[in-house]
């Protein structure tokens, strides 16, 4: 029987930092990650760059473990640190950091549900490992749910919310009048390479057609190097249960956008070829597990300080248009100016 002081479920940046911190406290720690590499949205599989607190302010820095990771990745890697350019160097840095803290790694291992000792106490997580045909329970004293979907908390019966609250519930000016499911969607990124000579691209028959004057692309800045976060789909799908259906749709849109850039007018990509296409959708939003306190828009606007602060943020209140690229006649963010390339 495997038993740990701390079991971290989900190996994105949040889970990896939590596991490193636990390891440094001398706790016997495990991390369970359902993909072959760590990093989640920031891994070489999805390729969202690390950019949170310091991204919009020249005088701000990430600090703590995430800063250590970022600096080590920059030391080893010469590719630009922006969407789509993340490569195996970051995966390897994360792996190396966890190894050095003696964290036990369960890769390709999906946590399916919490095993309860009693109604309010988790004693283990039931896992399935790809490639080894193994099913097992990992026991622990503490469980950290960093799955993004809150899989452990949800399966333990914890209270959760999904969707947007109405304006009146917390008095938030940016909230809709009535509560709804207008949450942010999942995205696939892609990378292209300048081959130095003209190359053709023939889209598959199932790619979405984006003609020259397509309204959706007029609303989205697209004549710069791809890594387009706005190839995003959310509602009317469910970002958890419809993950696969969203992925197939995203792929058809992604290849349609590339077809537009290559074949519908001159966008400056004549010499460019597809180098990499994301196959694992990056998820932004799904369940929110209810803790002791709900952070609101007003807390952020008032820059409220909390006596038990554990982290800080610097990203703006980044609300995406519900539906993403399916909301053709709207920009991907309500405030986005498609001609302002600085935003990317
Ligand atoms: C295209 C895109 C662009 C973005 N741009 C920005 C931005 O500009 N600024 C910003 O601040 N944020 C941005 N974000 C959001 C940012 O990426 C996330 O907030 C961040 O990645 C969250 O990290 P995390 O570790 O909590 O979750 P994730 O990165 O989602 O990691 C969760 C990990 O848990 C694993 N997992 C899930 N379920 C299980 C399970 N049952 N068992 C085992 N493992 C499991 C997943 O495979 C994943 O690796 C963007 C997101 C996307 C998709």
Give an overview of the whole structure.
It contains 8 helices and 12 strands. A hairpin with a 4-residue loop joins strand 5 (121-129) and strand 6 (134-145). The protein has helices at 13-24, 64-76, 88-100, 151-155, 167-170, 215-218, 243-263, 297-301; strands at 2-9, 29-32, 104-106, 109-118, 121-129, 134-145, 160-161, 186-187, 190-194, 232-233, 272-277, 288-289. The protein has 2 domains: 2-158, FAD/NAD(P)-binding domain, CATH 3.50.50; 186-284 and 320-336, no CATH class. The strands form 4 sheets. Strands 3-2-1-6-5-4 form a 6-stranded mixed β-sheet. The chain is globular, with a radius of gyration of 21 Å. The protein is of the alpha/beta class and 344 residues long.
- Low-confidence stretches at least 5 residues in length (pLDDT < 50)? none
What is the typical, i.e. mean, pLDDT? Answer: 94
Q: Which molecules other than protein and nucleic acid are bound?
A: flavin-adenine dinucleotide
**Helix proportion range:** 10-25%
Distance between the termini: 48 Å
Q: What's the main sheet like?
A: 6 strands, mixed
Looking at the structure, the CATH topology of the largest domain is FAD/NAD(P)-binding domain
> Which structural class matches the secondary elements?
alpha/beta
**Strand line-up across the major sheet:** 3-2-1-6-5-4
Shape from CA axes?
A: globular
Overall number of structural domains: 2
Order of helices and strands: EHEHHEEEEHEHEEHEHEEH
Proportion of residues in extended strands: 15-25%
Helix run count: 8
């Amino acid at each position: 029987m495997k038993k740990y002081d701390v079991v971290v479920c989900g190996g994105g940046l949040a889970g990896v930092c939590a596991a490193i911190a636990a390891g440094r406290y001398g706790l016997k720690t495990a991390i369970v990650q359902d993909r072959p590499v760590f990093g989640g949205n920031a891994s070489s599989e999805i390729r969202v760059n690390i950019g949170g607190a310091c991204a919009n302010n020249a005088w701000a820095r990430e600090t703590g473990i995430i800063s250590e990771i970022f600096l080590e990745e920059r030391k080893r890697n010469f590719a630009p640190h922006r969407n789509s350019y993340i490569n195996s160097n970051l995966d390897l840095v994360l792996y190396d950091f966890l190894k050095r803290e003696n964290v036990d790694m369960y890769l390709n291992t999906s946590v399916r549900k919490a095993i309860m000792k009693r109604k309010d106490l988790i004693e283990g997580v039931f896992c399935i490992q790809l490639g080894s045909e193994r099913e097992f329970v990992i026991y622990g004293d503490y469980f950290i749910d960093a799955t993004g979907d809150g899989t452990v908390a949800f399966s333990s019966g914890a209270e959760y919310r999904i969707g947007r609250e109405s304006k009146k519930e917390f008095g938030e000016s940016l909230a809709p009048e009535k509560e709804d499911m207008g949450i942010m969607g999942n995205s696939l990124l892609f990378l292209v390479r300048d081959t130095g000579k003209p190359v053709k691209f023939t889209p598959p028959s199932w790619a979405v057609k984006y003609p020259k004057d397509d309204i959706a692309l007029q609303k989205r800045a697209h004549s710069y190097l791809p890594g387009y976060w706005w190839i995003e789909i959310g509602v009317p799908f469910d970002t958890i249960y419809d993950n696969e259906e969203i992925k197939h749709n995203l792929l058809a849109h992604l290849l349609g956008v590339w077809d537009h850039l290559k074949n519908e007018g001159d966008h400056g990509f004549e010499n460019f070829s597809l180098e990499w296409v994301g196959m694992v959708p990056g998820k932004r939003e799904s369940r929110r597990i209810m803790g002791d306190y709900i952070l609101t828009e007003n807390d952020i606007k008032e820059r409220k300080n909390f006596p038990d602060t554990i982290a800080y943020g610097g990203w703006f209140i980044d609300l995406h248009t519900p539906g993403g690229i399916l909301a053709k006649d709207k920009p991907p963010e309500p405030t986005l100016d498609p001609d302002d390339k600085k935003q990317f």
